[in-house]
Automatic annotation (TrEMBL):
It comes from Ureibacillus acetophenoni. Belongs to the RutC family. This is Reactive intermediate/imine deaminase. Pfam families: Ribonuc_L-PSP. One of its GO terms (molecular function) is deaminase activity. One of its GO terms (cellular component) is cytosol.
Length: 424
């Protein structure tokens, strides 16, 4: 699995530019990470005229322009994430969505958030397969197969595929607390809903013969952040799931986000990124079995018993969301948004350096802000950590963050050396 991978950042004039703060597309190994697209006309730099349908169409046009510019097609998209300002707009977004994905549908997450940049009504993000890879002349580069799967033991949707595997990762559609037999939300409160969401994830994984402990990263979307403790109580009964995982106390990386609303008025929705050791053909035989999941924590960043700071698998590291906590005290740092942004990024830097990487290896940054108006102040700090503006990026506004923080940031980091097969 070891070898050289180049981070390939690209931009096109046919989609909104990042003004030096981020790249439209960042490819590494077998994935392209796209920056979240707002409904901005690239010619004017302004929001497109019209309502939710026009805005959704512009977001998808921007994604398609980026995809076309790197010689890919929309069916290469593995996962779509839709952020709306008003959950009632989802049906209108879906009408537009169908025109861009008439046959194949990727894994998908839909969530309403408190605010979006430029007061947009919708923002859409895509993760793209990259069959050619970024290892020059690699034997596994080329026409890798994308594997899709649905099971009746979990909720199905004509708008999304339950799991899409490509190369060494499976990306699951976010799971709502729906009873697959009835198609309705389970009876009960947030604990029952959290358990059902996790049961649905487990059912999907069992349908593709993947153990639960192969989950690398989870994102928990909560209608009420005050429910986090109750959800964590349920979550801890699912992780670790096996004797091997319990022996090393393995838990995935984790991000918790408050949503302003979720589909079907659910209280919780959970998304999972899963390792896929057998890969997708034609992966080389020696790369197809038993690749190690490497979990790592450092005392130089905040520790959490429910999550691992960074989990590496194959050619990617997935980090848990970092709050602006002083790792020595466990408390929010003094000051305002600039100080908090700096601390969150400093915690990320400490984690990245603890695994012998550098900030230039970051390929994707996800920023959650209590006040969307803080973007400019955050950007001032952000450029000191990413002066080249290379990583792809997403920013959303949320109504609350853990510990009443003003900001929370998670990242995806390249892992050029990969993770090795298990020792025999």
């Amino acid at each position: 699995m070891s070898g050289y991978n180049a981070v390939s950042a690209k931009n096109t004039e046919n989609a909104p530019n990042g003004n030096g703060l981020y790249s439209q597309s960042v490819a590494f190994s077998h994935y392209n990470n796209l920056s979240a697209q707002l409904p901005i006309e690239p010619e004017t730099g302004k929001l497109v005229a019209g309502g939710i349908k026009e805005q959704a169409e512009q977001c998808f046009k921007n994604i398609k322009a980026i995809v076309d510019s790197i010689d890919h097609v929309m069916s290469d998209i593995v996962r779509i994430t839709v952020f709306v300002k008003d959950i009632k707009d989802v049906d209108a977004v879906d009408e537009v969505y169908k025109t861009f994905f008439p046959t194949y549908v990727p894994a998908r997450t839909t969530v309403a958030v408190a605010a979006l940049p430029m007061d947009a009504l919708v923002q859409i993000e895509a993760l793209l397969s990259h069959g050619e890879g970024t290892i020059p002349n690699a034997p596994q580069a080329g026409d890798l197969i994308k594997l899709t799967n649905n099971t009746t033991n979990a909720p199905t949707s004509v708008l999304s595929t339950q799991t899409v595997a490509f190369s060494h990762y499976n990306y699951l559609s976010a799971q709502l607390p729906i009873d697959p037999k009835t198609g309705r939300l389970v009876v009960g409160g947030v604990k029952e809903q959290a358990a059902q969401s996790l049961k649905n994830i487990k059912a999907i994984l069992e349908s593709i013969d993947v153990p639960f402990d192969d989950i690398v990263k989870t994102t928990v979307f909560l209608k009420n952040l005050s429910d986090a403790e109750a959800v964590n109580e349920v979550y801890s009964t699912f992780f670790p799931d096996s004797a091997i995982a319990r022996a090393v106390a393995y838990v995935p990386a984790m991000t918790t986000v408050e949503a302003s609303a979720l589909p079907m008025d659910a209280l919780v929705q959970i998304e999972a990124v899963v390792s896929h050791g057998d890969g997708t053909p034609p992966q080389e035989i020696e790369d197809r079995h038993g690749i190690v999941i490497w979990a790592n924590n450092t005392e130089n960043a905040p520790l959490n018993s429910l999550s691992t700071q960074t989990v590496a698998f194959s050619h990617y590291n997935h980090l848990s969301a970092q709050l602006p906590l002083d790792p020595k005290t466990g408390e929010i740092v003094a000051g305002g948004i600039k100080e908090q942004a700096a601390q969150s990024l400093q915690n990320i830097k400490a984690i990245v350096e603890s695994i012998n990487h550098v900030m230039d290896d970051v390929v994707k940054v996800n920023i959650f802000l209590k006040n969307i108006e803080d973007i400019d102040a955050v950007n001032e700090v952000y450029t000191t950590f990413f002066p080249g503006g290379i990583p792809a990026r997403r920013i959303v506004g949320v109504s609350a963050l853990p510990k009443d923080a003003l900001i929370q940031i998670d990242v995806v980091v390249s892992n050029a050396e990969g993770t090795p097969p298990k020792a025999k």
